[in-house]
Input
Amino acid sequence: MCLYVALSARLAYHDDMRLLLAIPLILAPALALAQPCPGYSASGRTSFADLDRFYGERAVAILRAAMMRDHAELDALVTADATIELWRGDASWAPRGADRKRVSGGGAVMALTERLKPRAFTLLLEQPGPISIENPDKCERAVRLIITMTEPGQAASLDFAFRDGKLASVTGEQKGLVEGTLPQ
Output
């Protein structure tokens, strides 16, 4: 009888341990959802200006990685199915491979930088104010960069859309650019 009680207690202990070991696996999806989106503080709050700066800097880092052909960095920052669409007037351009199929992911961003040959960027930030925003249900954010191209008088307005902190798409327009200074 004493052996049976000891054996039963030992089996019950192992069953409890299995349950305790399984709890992190059960809670992992819920814990993952509780993590703040990239660009948000650990508390899950931020300002519009901080978000624009975070994602603007990320967009610039992606362009730099594409220009340097840094595949590892692009894989870390761009989704494999990221798409690019650039308009010039009423004509649309998207990167295509030798087989004429659309290219996506980091290869698409490299094709974009080869086409635009960017030399500078401008990022307009929201003005900080007393309002902060909370971590959204979906981790999605878009930011617009104005890219000045090496070709004189040419620029592009590009909207970088991010999903879960990674680039999901770029859409934009190539435009003529007139720059000048004003008297002080």
Residues 1-9, 19-33 have pLDDT under 50 and may be disordered. The first helix runs from residue 2 to 34. The longest strand covers residues 78-88. The two ends are 98 Å apart (CA to CA).
